[in-house]
Amino acid sequence: MQTSRSIIAAVALAAALSAGAGASQAAVVVSHFTQSDPGALLGAIDGKVKVDDTGGTLAFTIDLLDDLRFRNAPDANHWSFGFDLTGGAATIGGIVDDGTGTFHAIAGPKNMSPFGSFGYIVDCDTGCSTGYSAASAKHLTFTVSRAGGLTVNSLTFTHSATYGDVYFSADVANTGGKTGNIGALKPVTVELQGGVPEPATWTMMLVGFGGLGALLRRRRALAYRAVA
To answer: pTM for the full model?
Structure first.
């Protein structure tokens, strides 16, 4: 009986260790727009940029405050959204928004005064207003990929003489008709999304629990025979 207990404990321990060792954690960067172009008189602004590391691909989610919308500026210093990466060229794809306009990727670098120049740009032109429109997008998602993969550590910043390090910038309009660029400055928050066992780990866990069940059944059978 002692042997059965030892085997059961070993199987359970192996399953637990397998679950811990095989669990994968995805890093997530969260940054907030906290600064606006002082010449724009936008007032209080906010919005969130979330970047998920989805296993070699970065998934961007940008949410503006309810009274802000992305816009189509008629000049070369305002673009819907800009960011920077280290290393070689990356590809932006899967762009989805919640407005009536059409967003697409534009090769950088592009200036987003006064926050500096950004190497990667997602911009709206077709169907986007030059000012505020309730039908314009305030929610934007897209993915960024590169041969060899990307992680949140691939994100970098542009340096502004006025604001320091700026990770992200967006061009927006508010309900009062004011327009201008806004910036998400350092620091950013890096989070780890909880461990989810990988497929191989699930297999090992199932094998372990299967063995545990078999040993328990054997133990009950031996106990029944002893009583009989």
So the answer is: 0.74
